[in-house]
Design a protein that fits this description.
89 residues, mainly alpha, two-stranded antiparallel ribbon, 2 strands, globular
Length: 89
């Protein structure tokens, strides 16, 4: 499994393109959102994703996505607290 890198091709002013890219970029740098909520990083399975309030969240596997789905708001709160300091662990 690998981290996801999103490539967008758009025309327009660079500032507008950057804003659009940030809008579609996966949360937590493309790492597994569930893992970040638990205090570590993990690669992802591109098939294990979900969107919440227009934001893209990736997971390590479909099984982990099932865990993520059991308490999405709670996991997001924990992951937001851990991000980006989890990268230093």
């Amino acid at each position: 499994m690998a981290r996801c890198h999103l490539v967008l091709r758009q025309r327009g002013e660079p500032r507008q393109v950057r804003r659009r890219a940030e809008r579609y970029a996966p949360r937590y740098g493309g790492y597994c959102a569930y893992a970040v909520s638990q205090g570590y990083t993990a690669d992802i399975d591109p098939a294990a994703w979900s969107t919440v309030d227009g934001k893209l969240y990736l997971n390590y596997s479909l099984r982990i996505r099932e865990r993520w789905n059991k308490d999405i708001p709670g996991h997001i709160r924990k992951a937001d607290t851990n991000w980006p300091s989890v990268l230093q662990r």
